[in-house]
Amino acid sequence: MAIHCSRICLQYLIHLAHDNVDFRLPEIRSLLSLRGKPFDPGENFKEKSPFWLLNGLSEEDVNSIMARTVCAKSAFELWGHGRTHSELRNSLLKYPTENMSPFLQKDSTYKINVYTFNKTLEFEDRIKKIDAMEYLSFEGRVNLRNPKHIFCLLEDYGTDPNDIPDEPLYIYFGRWIADGQRELIRSHSVKNRHFIGNTSMDAGLSFIMANHARVKAHDLVYDPFVGTGSLLVACSHFGAYVCGTDIDYNTIHGIGKASRKNQKWRGPDENIRANLRQYGSEKLYVDVLVSDASKPIWRDGVLFDAIITDPPYGIRESTRRTGSQKDSVNSVKPSEDYVGDSHVPVSMAYHLSDIFTDLLNFSAQHLVIGGRLVYWLPIYRPEYCEEMVPLNACLRLVSNCEQTLSSHTSRRLITMEKIKEPEETDALAHLSDPHFSPYQGHNAFREKYFSGISKRTLTGKEETNKMAANGGE
């Protein structure tokens, strides 16, 4: 028992993937909070670095993070670190022997890997670095195929691929604990999915959203703009029951024109339920319904543990809601391949500012306390400021991460947590406080998006004409 206690508060090293960099910290924080643990980084913490040191955790905590994260590659119990190999050696020799000895016994097997960031080493150079660590008292046998323990030497050569130093900027050595879930990005790739659409969410981002929302087993998760159900697939992977709604009749029923190349119409079993069946989580499928997000169909009261969604931006999917004949001036005709009943409600434009206001109000009404709302907010970058992010008195902003789409547009992944139930005074507060007023600039996102494309196209034509005038130089 004494040995176990002495190993409770060790320092751990997380090796992170260098994609979706802006999403990594909120994901790790969210996963730690599931276990009631704070994010406690080591000294000189740099968010953009591929290596983070974490304090105050147990090995069980680290394993729970790695069992879910798609932003981290691997985790290690840190034995030593330094700016040079000499500093690393001194650090390793100071590491408590009682912490090392259980993994260096004669009856154990081991191997040492060398990982480098931003630089590729020749095989011979890797072997030299491993041989140089002979000062560590490994008494077991080397087993490269199936070792009992794996140790890793990790070298950081910075993040600039155009300025790679000859020697590493920092070096770490530790015992491998676990790998992250990067394999999910490949195994759940949209390319191999049974049912997809024009806006099906990328697998990696879907799992990141589920982790930001802290989705866990037996939760009930809802997507009000469900589309082809990519987010439901990710949430069901973590054991949550999933449901959703969408105004698009054809998408909900899996009929109409196909989104795949060389396929004109969707097949008989292309639907959201089939997607969950593909990944073995059909038992967690509650249902999906044709419904207008601006007119909620749900009974009053708390219903959902998490609400995760990607609202339409008006680019590849239109933003629309149902209306009445009185509003027919702004109505939208149904698509040509619509195959629903003959009576079609008038379809009207659904402004982005209204979409986000309705989404936050719905979440305030129907999330459990501590439940999270995670959604994408499209942004015209030259005009962005934090005041554009919608707020609600019942929801606390947890994180705001940017994914750049072009030089002038991006979308931001917004995570909010419900902190209190709605009160009558909240409505008055929303009217009197400008911070709660919908940002009307969101409504022009589509026009700004295409104006940016037009400007780039014109600039390209001008360059072409200039080159032609100069004889093609």
Summarize the structure.
With 473 residues, this protein is α/β, with parallel strands linked by helices.
Tell me the layout of helices and strands.
Blueprint: H1 2-6, E1 10-16, H2 21-34, E2 51-57, H3 59-66, E3 72-82, H4 85-93, H5 97-100, E4 109-117, H6 123-131, E5 141-142, E6 149-156, E7 170-179, H7 183-187, H8 203-212, E8 220-223, H9 230-237, E9 241-246, H10 249-253, H11 272-278, E10 285-290, E11 304-309, E12 320-322, E13 331-332, E14 347-349, H12 352-366, E15 367-380, E16 395-404, E17 409-418, H13 424-432, H14 445-469
Parallel strand pairs: 4-5, 4-6, 8-9, 8-11, 9-10, 11-15
Antiparallel strand pairs: 1-2, 1-3, 3-7, 6-7, 12-14, 13-14, 15-17, 16-17
What does this structure look like?
There is one protein chain. By secondary structure, the chain is α/β, with parallel strands linked by helices. 28% of the residues lie in helices and 25% in strands. It contains 14 helices and 17 strands. A seven-stranded mixed beta sheet has the order 2-1-3-7-6-4-5. It has a seven-stranded mixed beta sheet with strand order 10-9-8-11-15-17-16. The chain has a three-stranded antiparallel beta sheet with strand order 12-14-13, with no helix packed on it. α9 (230-237) links the parallel β8 (220-223) and β9. α2 (21-34) packs across α8 (203-212) and α8 packs across α9 (230-237).
